[in-house]
Amino acid sequence: MKILLTSYGSTGDIFPVIALGAACIKKGHEVAFATSPLYRAEIERAGLRYVYLPPDWEQWQYNDAMLKLTRARTPIETLQIIYRHSLPYLDEIVTILNREIAASDLVVSSYLVPYYRTLAERQGKPFAVVTFTPNVVPCAAVPPPHPAAMIPLPRFIRPFWNRLSWKIAGIAVDSAINRVIGKPLRKIGIPKFRNWLLHPADCALVSVSPALFQPSGIIPPIFRFVGYMRWQTHPDPVVLKRVADFCDGEKVPVITFGSVTFKDREKVMDRFLRNWPSNRRMIIQKGWVDLDAPSNCSNLCVVGSVSHDELFKHASVVIHHGGAGTTSSCLHAGVPQVVIPHIGDQWFWGREMKRLGVGVSLGRSRWPEHLCSAVDRIASNDRFRQRADEIRAILAHENGASQAVSVLESYAAECHKP
User: Fold this and answer.
1) Phi and psi for 211 in degrees, rounded to 5?
2) Is residue 193 within 8 Å of residue 201, measured between CB atoms?
C-alpha cells in the first residue's frame, strides 16, 4: 500500500508521524511524508520519501511563529493564527498534495488541517488523522478544552453539559476556521467546513496511552487510542559523553522547553540563575528558545539537540513545557516532572501529570523563582519516583506505532472493498 503522511508544526507534531511511517515501512508499505524542509533530514533518516511542502522557513521563522502562538488567549485563537500562517501558500500546498494523493492508496494527516480531507475524498482515497492529545476526543465524560466548558457542576449535570459544550465548540471551531481560510479555499473549490471538531475523519488515531488517558464511558468509534508513537533524534555520542562526565554517575535535574519560545529570554535566564543554587547541578537543553548560561557556571551543562531517551537517563527530574512529545518521553523514562505550560494543550498535560502523581505544575510567569522549591518537593517525596516507575512499566507493554499501522490497514481494506 502507498501511504501519504503529512503534518506541520514542531517536533511534537512531526516525530510521532515519522514513527508511524517507519512502522508502515516495516510492514512492507511505501511511505511518503509531505511537510516543510526543516524536517527533511530526519524524515529521510527514517527511510521515508520526503515531499516538499511550503513554507520553506528557517528556524528563526518557526521561532517567531511559535512566539505568536504563545500569545493566543484561547484554543480557537491558536487555530486561527496557525491558519493565517498558511494563507500565502494555499495554492502551492493544494497543487502538491493533489499530485501526491493521486499516487497514494491512503492519506494520513495531523489533526489540524481539515481541508486535506476534502482533497483526499475528491480523489476517492481513504483519509485518516492523527492527534497527539486525548482532550479533543468528544465524549460525555470530559468537556472540550476551553475554560468556559470547565466550570464546576454537579456530577449528574456534567454529562449533559459536556455533550452540549462539544456541540457548541464544534460550531465555534468551524466558524473560526471558515473566517480565516474559508474564502481563499472556496476560490479553489473547497467548501466551508462543517462538523470538523466532532468528525475530522472516518478514522482518527489518538497517539497516547489508552491505559493512562482513554476517557471513561462511550467515545465515538472513529477515535482509536493506539498508544504513543515515538521517534528520537540520532544520539550524539560526543554530547552524551559530555553529559555523562558532568553527571559523574549521579542523576541531576534537566530543563528543556522544546519548541516553545518566549520573550525576554535573557531576563528569564538571569532570574533563573539568581534563584538556582550555584552548588546544585542542572542540565539545560537549549531548545528553540536557545537557552544558555555563562561559561563560568560550572554547575550547569548546556546541550543542544539530543535524544530525550538518552538525555533523560541522567535526569532526577525533568522541567519542561508540557508538550505532548516531551511529556511522553518523561513517562517512558520513568522520571518525575515539573511542568511549566506556555501554550495550547500544555496546561492539559500539566494537569494530567498531577493526576497521575508523577509531577507538579508551575505558572510560567514566576517559574524561575519557584523552580528550586518544586524540585525539592519532588526530591523529598519518593511517591513521585515510584509512580513514574509504575507508569514506565505500563508503557513498556504498548507499541503505538505498530498498533496504528494495524488500525490503518484494517481501515484502508474496509474502504477499498467493492
Assistant:
1) -65, -30
2) no
pTM for the structure as a whole: 0.94
Would you say 292 and 269 are in contact if contact means Cβ atoms under 8 Å apart?
Answer: yes
What is the helix (H) or strand (E) element at residue 402, kind and residue range?
helix 400-415
Nearest to 406 by CA among 6, 18, 23, 130: 23
Phi-psi region of 365 (alpha: psi -120 to 50; beta: other; left: phi over 0): alpha
pLDDT digit string, tens, across residues 118-173:
999 999 999 999 999 999 999 888 888 877 777 888 888 888 998 999 999 999 88
Query: Is residue 361 a contact partner of residue 354, using CB atoms and an 8 Å limit?
Result: yes
Number of alpha helices (DSSP H) and beta strands (DSSP E) in the chain = 17, 13
How far out from the chain centre does Cα 377 lie? Answer: 27
C-alpha cell at 341: 505550560
> Which domains does the chain show, CATH number per domain?
2-228+399-415 (3.40.50.2000), 237-395 (3.40.50.2000)
Report the chain's terminal Cα–Cα distance, integer Å.
17
Strands (E), 136-237: 204-206, 223-225
How many other C-beta atoms are found inside a 10 Å radius of the C-beta of residue 287? 22
